[in-house]
């Protein structure tokens, strides 16, 4: 009985009704193979991206809670600066995947060339703004006098890296659109290796290198971003690749139709990114006011939770690409099945992560610090974390699928309600009037994740996203 129930669940039967079929439905095994083919590189890539912050926090952890907080306080300001590029890339992936699904390869290359050019300009402007306004931005984020100097140094250096990172992300976004997720994986793997190597040399000073502490971690991250950009740029010069800027006759000149398609998706995604980042910013500001030790504990646990997000984000990338390609090929039924398959893969992964995080929580925390207060409080937070992992991964996959179809206005609304308003409001109420402190902030995180999951699942089941035109 149990075995047959599990088989029925993973077969995805019932996801598409007979009257909704647009053609022959492949066997479940083939659907999972297609998903794995795109998903495993993107999952590995996303986990590697989260590991950059994870490794930075872990390696500066030897310097004490102040260093952890100095690095951690820069996370949301950096992501606010990067929000324009990230939202723009949602449009890039969605449009390129549609062109690929329709076998319009020149259209895909035309989109790539225009978007790389625009991304270069935006990345340069954002990098300069971040360097100039680093101190006031971090003071507003809640950096105290004990960490402001280190946090400003760290932030200004990684803002140089943002220039390289922004362009590389756009190229990788286009590659994901054509299903070439291995390129993104390779670039981020290389960036991680460079980051770890130079962290070792520069944080504490090794061999001929000086001891630069927090600044060393920032330099290592920036060098990793540069290497990732160079590898991404090489990936779009191969003669046999779908995306090829050297051998394609597509113009670099702006095209109204292409840019309109990208920004129709991207502007809604920008609203979503702004809502998310402002919400996360306010949330971090509330937590930072609890003190340096509490914020260091919070930052360590967020880095652990981000591993879970990395898996969900990787499956989201695969789902976004498959949904765009299937809708481009006029196969709404296969688009729905692609999402269902990725959700089921996500369920298995999230179950494994819950077990690891709960049973190994103290071992994981000791990778970052030996402070007994942080380890004790962090252990409680990781129990709370376990209740949100399933919801987090499922909602990330479903939200990404809606974005891949171009339904970014709805996901922006969800982010505004849940992250922009609900999470910081509940966190404040639980932390202060109700006196729950750091635990209260994490209860707010759980409520936010379940709220988003419910809202995006309602939208997904109604199916209107399958009728959008890009």
From TrEMBL:
Keyword flag Transport: yes
Record bears the keyword Cell membrane: yes
Sample GO molecular function, one term: xenobiotic transmembrane transporter activity
Pfam families registered for this protein in UniProt: MatE
Record field: transmembrane: 38-59, 79-96, 116-134, 154-171, 192-210, 216-236, 345-368, 380-398, 410-435
GO terms under biological process: monoatomic ion transport
Membrane disposition: Multi-pass membrane protein
GO cellular component terms given for this protein: plasma membrane
Protein localization: Cell membrane
Keywords, sorted A to Z: Antiport, Cell membrane, Ion transport, Membrane, Transmembrane, Transmembrane helix, Transport
Function as written in the Swiss-Prot or TrEMBL entry: Multidrug efflux pump.
Family: Belongs to the multi antimicrobial extrusion (MATE) (TC 2.A.66.1) family.
Name of this chain's protein: Probable multidrug resistance protein NorM
């Amino acid at each position: 009985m149990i075995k047959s129930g599990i088989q029925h669940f993973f077969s995805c039967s019932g996801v598409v009704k007979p009257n909704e079929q647009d053609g022959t439905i492949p066997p479940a095994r083939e659907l999972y193979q297609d998903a794995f083919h795109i998903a495993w590189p993107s999952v590995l890539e996303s986990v590697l991206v989260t590991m950059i912050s994870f490794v930075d926090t872990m390696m500066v952890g030897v310097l004490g809670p102040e260093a952890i907080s100095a690095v951690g306080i820069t996370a949301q300001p950096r992501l606010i600066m990067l929000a324009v590029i990230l939202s723009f890339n949602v449009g890039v992936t969605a449009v390129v995947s549609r062109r690929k699904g329709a076998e319009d390869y020149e259209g895909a290359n035309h989109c790539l060339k225009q978007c790389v050019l625009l991304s270069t300009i935006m990345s340069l402007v954002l990098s300069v703004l971040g360097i100039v306004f680093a101190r006031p931005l971090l003071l507003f984020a809640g950096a105290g006098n004990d960490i402001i100097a280190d946090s400003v140094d760290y932030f200004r250096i990684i803002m140089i890296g943002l220039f390289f990172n922004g362009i590389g992300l756009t190229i990788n976004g286009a590659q994901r659109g054509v299903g070439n997720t291995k390129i993104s994986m390779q670039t981020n793997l290389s960036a991680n290796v460079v980051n770890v190597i130079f962290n070792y040399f520069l944080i504490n000073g090794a061999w001929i290198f000086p001891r630069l502490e927090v600044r060393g971690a920032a330099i290592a991250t920036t060098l990793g971003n540069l290497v990732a950009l160079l590898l991404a740029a090489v990936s779009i010069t191969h003669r046999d690749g779908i995306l090829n800027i050297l051998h394609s006759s597509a113009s670099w000149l702006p095209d109204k139709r292409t840019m309109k398609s990208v920004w129709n998706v991207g502007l809604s995604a920008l609203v979503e990114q702004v809502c998310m980042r402002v919400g996360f910013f306010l949330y971090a500001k509330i937590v930072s006011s609890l003190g340096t030790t509490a914020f260091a504990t919070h930052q360590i646990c967020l880095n652990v939770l981000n591993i879970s997000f990395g898996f969900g984000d990787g499956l989201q990338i695969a789902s976004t690409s498959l949904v765009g390609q299937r809708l481009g090929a006029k196969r709404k039924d296969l688009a729905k099945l692609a999402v269902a398959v990725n959700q089921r893969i996500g369920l298995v992964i999230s179950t494994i992560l819950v077990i690891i995080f709960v049973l190994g929580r103290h071992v994981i925390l000791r990778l970052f610090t030996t402070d007994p207060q942080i380890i004790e409080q962090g252990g409680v937070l990781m129990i709370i974390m376990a209740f949100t992992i399933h919801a987090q991964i499922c909602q990330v996959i479903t939200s990404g699928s809606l974005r891949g179809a171009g339904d970014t206005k709805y996901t922006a609304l969800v982010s505004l309600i849940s992250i922009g308003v609900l999470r910081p409001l509940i966190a404040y109420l639980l932390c202060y009037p109700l006196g729950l402190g750091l635990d209260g902030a994490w209860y707010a995180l759980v409520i936010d994740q379940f709220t988003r999951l419910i809202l995006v699942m309602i939208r997904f089941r109604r199916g209107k996203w399958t009728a959008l035109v890009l």
